[in-house]
Amino acid sequence: ADTMKIGITQNNVGVDSYQTTYEKAFIAAAEANPDIETVVLDAGGDVARQIAQMEDLIQQEVDSIIIWPTNGEAVIPAVRKAHNADIPVIVTNSNIAEQGFDFVASFSGPDNITQGSRSAEIMCDKFKASGIEDEARIVQISGQPGYTTAIERAKGFEDRLPEVCPNVTLVETQPGDWNREKSQKVMEAFLVKYDDIDGVYSGDDNMGVGALNAAKAAGRDGIIFVGATNFSVGYEAMERGEYWGSIYQSPVDDAEAALQTAVDVLSGKDVPFLNYFDTPKITQDNMGEFDKPVF
Amino acid sequence: MAPGTLSTFLKRGAIWGFILFELVFFTIAGEFLSLSDKAFMDLDNMLLLFKQSAPIGIIAMGMTIIMINGNIDLSVGAIYAISAIVLLGSMTWPMFAGLGDWVIPLSWALALLTGAMLGALNGLIVWKTGVDAFIVTLGSMLGYRGLVFMYNGEQPTSHLNWTLVDFAEAQFLGLHTPTWFLLAATAAIWFLMNRTVHGRNAYAIGNNREAAVNAGIRVGPHMMINFVIIGFLAALSAVVFYSESGSVNPNDGELYELWVITAVVLGGTKLTGGAGSILSTFGGVLAIQLLRKGLAHIGADTSTVNLVIGLILVAVLFLDRQLNIKGKEELRL
Amino acid sequence: MSEQTPALRLEGIVKTFPGVRALDNVSFSVMPGEVHALMGENGAGKSTLMKVLGGIHQPDAGQIIVGEQPVVMALPLEAKAKGIVFIHQELSLAGELSVAENIYLGELPRKRLGLVDWATLYAQTDAILERLKVGFDARTRVGDLSIANQQMVEIARALTVDAKAVIFDEPTASLTDAEKVVLFDVIASLQAQGVGIIYISHRMEEIFKITDRISVLRDGQFRGTLKTAETTEEDVTQLMIGRKLDLSRAASDHELGDVALEVRDLSCGKLFNDASFTVRYGEVVGFYGLIGAGRTEIAETLFGLRDPSGGHILLDGQETRIQSPADAISKGISLVPEDRKEQGLVLGMNCRDNMTLPQVDDLKAGPFVAEGAEIAIFDQYRDKLDIRTPGWRQIVGNLSGGNQQKIVIGKWLSMRPKVLIVDEPTRGIDVGSKSEIHNLIRELAAQGYAVIVISSEMPEVLHVSDRIIAMYGGRITRTFGADEVTEDSLIQAISGISHAAEPQPQAS
Amino acid sequence: MIGFTVANERFLDPDNVMGVIRSSAILGVMALGVTFVVISGNLDLSVGSMMSFSTIVVLDLHDKIGPALAIPAMFAMTLCLGALIGFLVGYLRLNSLIVTLGMLSAIHGLTLTYSGGKNMDIADKEGTWFGVFGQGDAMGIPIPILLFVLLAALLGAVLSKTPFGRKVYAVGGNGVAATFSGIRRARLVFCCYLISSFCVATAGLIQASRSLGSQNTVGQGLELEVLAAVILGGASLMGGAGTIFKTVIGVLILGFIQNGLLLVGLQFYVQYVVTWIIIILAVWLDIAAKRGKLWSPIA
Ligand SMILES: Nc1ncnc2c1ncn2[C@@H]1O[C@H](COP(=O)(O)OP(=O)(O)OP(=O)(O)O)[C@@H](O)[C@H]1O
Ligand SMILES: Nc1ncnc2c1ncn2[C@@H]1O[C@H](COP(=O)(O)OP(=O)(O)OP(=O)(O)O)[C@@H](O)[C@H]1O
Ligand SMILES: [Mg+2]
Ligand SMILES: [Mg+2]
User: Could you tell me if A79 and B164 are in contact, meaning their C-beta atoms sit under 8 angstroms apart?
Assistant: First the structure.
């Protein structure tokens, strides 16, 4: 068969190691397959640039486009253009809005809402185990304002928590911008402000570890830290027993799933429209089952 | 011909030389590195180049006059986002419900008005308080961004109107709608700066503010007008872009100020004010978009793109400097 | 004249700045068709008074009467509207704009829709430039003009409106004799049109040539008005500085030492060619020439600011290359530059810091700057040069023009160089201080310094120099000894018509 | 300030005040260097990205060659970057805004290449003494504060008392006149960028030591905050004005605003708006006091 030319436009590669690892894994997976050639682009978080990249990929007549949307709705017209040019589009990591489903071949990625719910469950289970499920007070450090992933995780968490632990109060939420240092500052202020914090939920482990550092520096023990996207720092903190749990999500799986979906679509296989890969809970109890994350 | 337009055009030729270099380089490199069978200089690709330059380019025109005037505006990215929110948000407001597609011009007007007013607010503060524009707009970059988030929290504001999308994607005489707006903005601003009293006074103010004051030029209103114009253009850029894309994230437009300023300075406008040319800014905008496109064309990865963009900026400056050296007789300062 | 109403009248004007009472109850008036000189030492308050008149400063007390009406002018714009045109002491131009736009700055002719009426603008400008007999046209970028020509642009502004009164604040400070003639013609024609003219200058010969009356300010106070025809230089000076001037040439005859500086066939591109001359210890060499003659460029080359394209520089008989000003300073060369605002001073810095700037590296106590030593230097030269300032902490930008110039001179004198080059040293300096500076230059020579004086004022060159080098078009045309020089031969030498033997400079 | 105290009584709690100063230390140290650059009439927008670089490099080298060697190695590498910028701006006379903007991007690329895009963490966090710079105490004062204060005192003295400092003001105030006064402008600007990069390296050290692990974007966006602090302190973008002391004030104002707003617990976007208002009011009142008039005299 001819080689397949697959273009990908990622959201914002430089911003965290998840996305960088994703990019590397994607390139590695593509190189491993002699039938695939790829153009790997990064939108740098800018919708306008991403749309321009879509147009460029269409103009370069690639066979398929994978997009990690910077904005699940803004890219729909660009996706439609690809669709009209008979280029199948695969959405990766975070989905586009429903209006655009008609123009998309498949979505491949994690389910961020479910991730948020699962974090709530991890946190609640731990409170129950410690017997404080009726009085616990928690704070949330969310991801960068405006990012779908940040929004969905927060939503999943906030919706699920009252269902499983109705008496736990979420006292305040502030964004940590996916940034460990920023999150540490936010947590420092929380610690000054609230004498009683039993749990911290952060949108990813990077921020979670920042919060953990703040708590350690202030000498506040006994706080339950739960995150998402288990980074290696988070994994290590769990090994040390300082950090309770997270969601295991591998950018390598994410990247390989997206590429495989594209290949499947191009070779005419039937693929499910929503192609979630599993992102299980990871806590100090079961972490032995998981490899340490590479990022 | 307005004074010096042609000669400054030639003197600031570095940017056009650089564009030429980019074209040649990416064409040749593309032969070896690109996956695509299409040439880099393919007509469609060049048409896309203009279209894709529009969001930054339209704002850059406003930034040029602000900088010629001796000020700077760091809040354009935030104004861009607010205007986009007003544009898309207002289309779904219940009070406009019965209007059908007539809501479009209304929303456009509202968005443009918003931009102009936010610009006016900046201008008014700069004028009346005497605080440096850098600080005022650094502040409003943050403050306006706060307003963006107030409208819809962290949620994107969306309204996909296919009539609008079709209009924005249309091509007239081969050029895309955004290209037309970019060209119109460029022409209008060129005319303003080279043909009108306001434009010439703006140059004088940026060049030697004391002299302008002594000559009886009212500095405040001129600055204010320019801030209104850049606000308007930031909104116009948003209107053009979001008509097509239909959804705005609250952090859209972040870092636009830096890209815009880069384009303007690449075009030879002085940060200290008083000198600058609209056409060269146009060149600066094209050069940046060409660079992004070219690097994508040859498939450079993220770290390379960052590295190369940075080094190229420095290289262009260096080239420009070499071109402008008057010779060995020059004073060594 | 006396029964007419004055074009302009000032009554009891008071203006204070922090630490300075710049104007203290000043009253005077200007008749239509009169050229009225305003004189006073540096810092006496002349510019301040005119700025009050021009709407740039607001008086603390007193009133301004134009025609019959008392007026309040909150803005320069309003002064202009009242027919008061102000030609500034410091150039007030936008260098990036064209000559025409600068002349009509703030009042560009308009068409509909706020468009500039370029045709009218250029036509009017060309007419004005015609009258001024200058060699540039309306479309030239002002930044490309020499200082003298920029000054002419400034002067051209006086001709743009139907003025009631025109204020010239030291217009000739950076003009050479050729342009002065033109300026005086302009003033005469304004006078003929019945415009009242206020003329500020430190040059007595001009004052006596063109003015009708002279008003004198001293330390911000009005000292009286004299009829020019009925007074003498001595009287005016007496009124200004409160004593008589000693104009005799001090300490002129002393032994000359060895050759300090020798320049052989020095060239720099098209700026100047094959310049050869020597300066001996104890000698003052004057450079005289028209604008663009290349005197400044030679000085800049000697100071390491330009790369010579050929020739040799010998200091104490040793051939040297001067790489940079720092290098020049370390080799004992100092330059008092011609443009004090751009080249001489950091306007936002205080007086002391400006004065000690070139030697701040040497004034150390441990790792720090020795403030005591600095203040000592400042005090020494403040007294020596009679610098008027409330104290060393004053920001230089707030000093009067002449006092700024003195700071620059003090800065380089305090370096105690071997070779001191002064470029237009007395530009904007009052008569008293001027003769002090002349004496100082002579004194320095007597102490054994080698001094080069570049000046566009013939009396000055004649007064201070042991030898005079005349330049024309980038070439040295002739060298005069103090005894052989006459005004006529000097004028011939600088206009390229002297000495058939000298090679004629190529037109460039 | 009063508002914050009323809104949350813990604002003036010594622990909180100490905390704010400590977390401002990183920003503050960088601002010290940028003050030199700004006074000399230039800009430095690369400090954030350079700080990420320093942090990543020292963390990486920590495990490879040990902290004792890693620290000087990181300083050397950061100073090289500073020297490069200094060369471009000082000797080649390129526009500093664009050069440093370009370097912002280029150094980010360099960092990504260096780290392979991964987070960088010290493997044995318990067993290293490296944490002392960010977490340690000396005589009850946190080391970051101590470093900040020492560096501020040192650089403050350099700027206000030494010939070098005097020349920085001169070059920023009027570069041409400074050259005419025999100041080697290129060398001086070069030195300012070296100082700036030294400060950045120190900030990177504190940052790395504080969290013993970090990400490629740790310094992202700090350049504007640093600049805001410097300007808030009264330095002029035109050069020639500003002091280290005022910069420290600017840093603290910014730090306390951020902390105060967090303590009040406003929505983050309300914080944005309030920060905007406070910054403009602060600068406005400052210059209004200087000119003795509330409204600007601009016609
Ligand atoms: N803006 C200002 N702030 C403070 N002091 C000032 C200011 N402007 C002028 N002065 C002071 O007012 C006094 C009068 O200055 P002015 O410029 O009027 O002198 P002048 O007579 O024009 O002198 P020159 O012949 O040197 O030009 C001086 O002592 C000067 O230092
Ligand atoms: N014929 C000319 N062609 C080009 N440029 C000229 C010409 N005449 C004068 N200039 C410009 O005018 C400037 C002033 O000349 P310069 O400073 O050498 O004169 P000068 O002899 O020092 O006289 P002064 O210092 O009294 O003005 C020169 O640097 C040059 O740029
Ligand atoms: Mg004066
Ligand atoms: Mg000269």
Answer: no
How far does residue D55's CA lie from ligand 3's centre (Å)?
56
- The C-alpha atoms of residue C86 and residue C83 are separated, in whole angstroms, by 10
Of B143, B219, B314, the CB nearest to D94: B314
In a domain, C294, yes or no: yes
Mutation target to probe the B interface, by most B beta carbons within 10 A, among A60, A84, A140, A173 is: A60
State whether C119 and C234 are in the same domain.
yes
C337 occurs within a structural domain? no
User: D214 contacts in A (CB within 8 Å)?
Assistant: 180-181
H/E element, A251: helix A251-266
Mutual orientation of helices B43-68 and A47-59 as an angle, nearest 10°? 160
3-state secondary structure of B59: helix
Pair (C128, C199) in one structural domain: yes
Query: Could you tell me if C159 and C282 lie in one domain?
Result: no
Q: Pull the structure tokens for residue B30.
A: 């593309």
Residues C389, C423 within the same domain: no
Look up the pTM and report it: 0.82
- Look at residue A60 in the predicted model and tell me its pLDDT: 85
pLDDT higher than 70, residue C10: yes
Ligand 1 centroid, distance to C506 Cα (angstroms): 45
Same domain membership, residue C425 and residue C311: yes
- Quote the minimal CA–CA distance from A74 to chain B in Å: 4
Q: For the domain that residue C130 is a member of, what is the CATH number?
A: 3.40.50.300
Question: How far is residue C411 CA from its own chain's centroid?
Answer: 18
Beta strands in C316-447 (DSSP E): 318-320, 333-336, 364-365, 368-369, 419-423
Question: For chain C, what is the mean pLDDT?
Answer: 86
Partner-chain residue, chosen from C344, C363, C369, that has the shortest CB–CB distance to D177: C344
Query: What mean pLDDT is reported for chain D?
Result: 87
- Is 60 exceeded by the pLDDT of residue C507? no
Scanning every residue of chain D, which has its alpha carbon at the shortest distance from the alpha carbon of B305? Answer: D109
Contact A225, A211 (CB under 8 A): yes
pLDDT tens figures, D217-274: 888 878 888 988 898 888 877 788 899 999 999 999 888 887 887 777 777 788 788 8
How confident is the model over C440-482, as pLDDT tens digits?
A: 888 888 888 899 999 888 888 888 898 999 998 888 988 888 7
Do C191 and C82 lie in one domain? The reply is yes
Same domain, C453 and C508: yes
Q: What percent of chain C has pLDDT over 90?
A: 31
- Residues of A numbered 24-63 whose beta carbons fall under 8 angstroms of chain B's beta carbons: which are they? 27, 37-42, 45-49, 51-53, 55-56, 59-62
Neighbours of C5 (CB within 10 A): 12
Residue C349 belongs to some domain of the structure: yes
Test D259 with A193 for CB contact under 8 angstroms: no
- Nearest one of A166, A248, A252, A176 to A213, comparing CA atoms: A176
Q: Which of C10, C48, C204, C409 to mutate to test the pocket of ligand 1 (most atoms within 8 A of CB)?
A: C48
Q: Which of D106, D176, D284 sits opposite B131 (nearest CB)?
A: D284
Is residue C259 a part of any domain in this protein? yes
D9 pLDDT exceeds 80?
A: no
C56 and C173 together in one domain: yes
Q: Evaluate: CB of C40 within 6 angstroms of ligand 2.
A: no
Range of the domain at C171: 8-241
**Contact call for residues A237 and A209 (beta carbons, < 8 A):** yes
Task: Please count the structural domains in chain C.
Answer: 3
Q: Is the CB of C148 under 6 A from ligand 2?
A: yes
Q: What value does the CA radius of gyration of chain B take, rounded to a whole number of Å?
A: 20
The interface predicted TM-score (ipTM) is 0.79
In sequence order, which ranges of chain B are alpha helices (DSSP H)?
5-11, 14-33, 43-68, 76-90, 103-129, 133-152, 162-169, 177-195, 197-207, 209-214, 219-245, 256-266, 278-297, 302-324
Distance CA C395, CA C7 (A): 36
